[in-house]
Q: What sequence folds into this?
């Protein structure tokens, strides 16, 4: 069994580009202005599990 591990220096790494859907099309986060980048980082993501926990609404 080969136990060699690969280590990379920061200069050897390739940056990961984040894309997001805006108004029906996809565009890279790097093309956003500083305000829109801040809005992107403040987003809250929907999860079905947490939505089902909050669905305890009772009908009168």
A:
């Amino acid at each position: 069994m080969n136990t060699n591990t690969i280590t990379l220096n920061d200069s050897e790494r390739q940056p990961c580009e984040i894309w997001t859907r805006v108004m029906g099309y996809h565009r890279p986060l790097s093309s956003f202005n500083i305000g829109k980048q801040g809005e992107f980082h403040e987003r809250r993501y929907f999860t079905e599990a947490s939505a089902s926990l909050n669905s305890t609404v009772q009908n009168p």
